[in-house]
Amino acid sequence: MTRRTISVKAAVVALGLVGWLGLTTHVQAAPVVVNGLTFSEVGAGVTITGGAGTGSLADPIVLSETITSLDATISIGGMLAFDQNLIGSLHTVGFALTKVITNASGAAWTFFDNELQEILGTPSPDGDGLSFGQGCAACRPFTGDLLPAVNEEIVLRDFVNFSGGSVPNGGVLTLSFVITDNSPLDLVFLRQRPNFRPTEGVPEPASLLLLGSGLAGLGLWGWKRRRDVQA
């Protein structure tokens, strides 16, 4: 038996094991290029199924996606070469984006968080130039058909989230907003998290101060108690 035959048989066995265990693998679709911008899937959880439009307010880029998890990220490449503002704001780069999202996550959505990041996994601070059209009144209102309530955060993070309704499993959610950058990098990330509320599990500064004071007080009490026992 040749080494090639052994390798082929090993691959067949591995694929059979994957099927037997009920495991699936995510095969990334080809990036979608729309008016010079490249939209790509980052890991599993999202499949980009199409895109069209120019990016102006009258003709936004319409991106179709299917989301299968509660944490799905896409990247937007070509921002540096794009180098144009199509929404009439004062930002260096700006374009309007409409997302048509099919919910295939297996759960209904009552909240949908979108967060822009220059470095994947790192919150985007106010001073990096990347935003959802910060300061552009003409770019608003942002809209969500099944989640019509809109909330934005521009200081600690760059996010816009939608709530006030429900998107059933199998339903289609349409969101419209803008993305801008004053010091564009060639690649940025749009993290999408259905049912994730940014304030959950993130202590406020005052809470952190109280917690720190409490721990310090416990430490001091324990030290005094040990000193009294030793005396």
Account of the protein in words:
This protein has helices at 3-21, 79-82, 205-230, and strands at 32-34, 37-42, 46-52, 61-67, 72-77, 93-103, 109-117, 130-131, 143-144, 149-153, 159-167, 172-181, 187-194. The chain is of the alpha+beta class and 231 residues long. It has one domain (27-196). It has a seven-stranded antiparallel sheet. Strands 3, 4, 6, 8, 9 and 12 form a six-stranded mixed sheet that branches. β1 (32-34) and β2 form a beta hairpin. The longest helix has 26 residues, at 205-230. 30% of the residues are buried.
Distance between the termini: 81 Å
Number of domains: 1
Outline type: globular
Helical fraction equals 10-25%
Strand content: 35-45%
* Largest sheet descriptor: 7 strands, antiparallel
Number of beta-strand segments: 13
| Overall pLDDT metric | 83
Structure annotation, total helices:
3
Taking Cα atoms only, what radius of gyration do you get, to the nearest Å? Answer: 23 Å
Kindly report the spatial arrangement of strands forming the biggest sheet: 1-2-5-13-7-11-10
Unreliably modeled segments: 3-24, 200-213
SSE pattern, N- to C-terminal: HEEEEEHEEEEEEEEH
Structural class: alpha+beta
Keyphrases for this structure?
231 residues, alpha+beta, 13 strands, single chain, disordered N terminus
